[in-house]
Amino acid sequence: MQTLLIITNLPDRDSAEKLARTLVHRHHAACVNLLPPVSSVYRWQGEIETAEEIPLWIKAPEDRYFEVEATIREFHPYQTPEIISLPVGRGLPDYLNWVLAETRHP
Fold first, then answer.
1. Over the stretch 10-57, which tens digit does the pLDDT of each residue have?
2. Is the CB of residue 19 less than 8 Å from the CB of residue 68?
3. How many domains does the chain have?
4. pTM of the model
């Protein structure tokens, strides 16, 4: 089973922590890293915007992707949140097995 690194950004630390805890609590993700704030520059509805955001790196198996996406959409305040999924090509086998084990419902 392929492990994914799913990336999203939240507008503040509180919403980022709430989403991270929910993803792990629901067994949709094994681990979520909350990174330091970043400045994002993007075009939205014809205007160039700047925002400070909290990046999240979500580690989950590919069979949990749609649950992760649904949970991000449920908790994310943006109309169109960034949700990017990257396959993990290689990794420590013990870690990748842990990701699988932690995302199986008890």
1. 999 999 999 999 999 999 999 999 999 999 999 999 999 999 999 999
2. no
3. 1
4. 0.94
- Nearest Cα to Cα of residue 78 among 54, 62, 58: 54
**CA–CA separation, 40 and 54 (whole Å):** 10
Token output for 74 = 């449920």
CATH number for 92 = 3.30.70.120
DSSP string covering the chain: --EEEEEEEESSHHHHHHHHHHHHHTTS-SEEEEPPPEEEEEEETTEEEEEEEEEEEEEEEGGGHHHHHHHHHHH--SSS---EEEE-----HHHHHHHHHHTS--
